[in-house]
Amino acid sequence: MKQRKRLKVAASVSALGLVMALGACSGEKKPETPTVQPAPTGQGQGQTQPSDGEGNKDTTSAPSEDTASSGSDGINTGCSLPDGDQKIPNSAPPVDEWVDVNGTGVPTSKTYGPEKREGDLFGCYAHSPTGALFAMVYFGAASGKPEGFLDAWVTPEDLATIPENRRGSSGDSGVTLTLRGFRFSSATQDKVTADLAWHVTTDEGQNATMVSRIIMKWSGDHWTMDPEMGDTPVTRAPANLDGFTLWSAGNS
Question: Compositional bias (Low complexity) spans (predicted)?
């Protein structure tokens, strides 16, 4: 039951969770810092390590236990983008084009992905922290709405735990999301966790900058949603987005 709840929250995804959190925080006078903090760098398997004197970080390798393949008509399978640079980006990654998905600007790149696109259904991002970051922004913007989204972005094992009557999209949530920035928490070769800051506007006129944590895991040849992300609540962003790297369609 707990696993089903995780998947329902995570797969209907960011828009609904963000607006619920916005409503809960609407009476506050000051923004709160996120309850989730970046994982410390240093020793330990799966933690990020400094790679040079310029603040860039290399990710350590942690073999994935999940090698199952998921996908909807191959949109997120048969991926062939090179892995590329394995450093965690400490500045806004270059973007070839920002495209609209559900009213949200989503970054696209020949280097980082998506490699495949069918309407608003995207798939196949590079096997790197930056590739995972591009996938996270798409995942949050899509909010489970494109046809075939769950089949493409949830492994068959995880999808099997979702009842058939809960596999539809979250519908029109009345929320507009605008990406503001990102903050990595941890990264291994096959699992990446980051906090995304979104400016959230609702049809009722509410607006605030909120933070959602997204976790991606590598499955076979592509990134998929990790159900653990459903355990982390959406929170208000810290003042001035302290600790975040600014990244949006307007500043890249």
Answer: 33-50
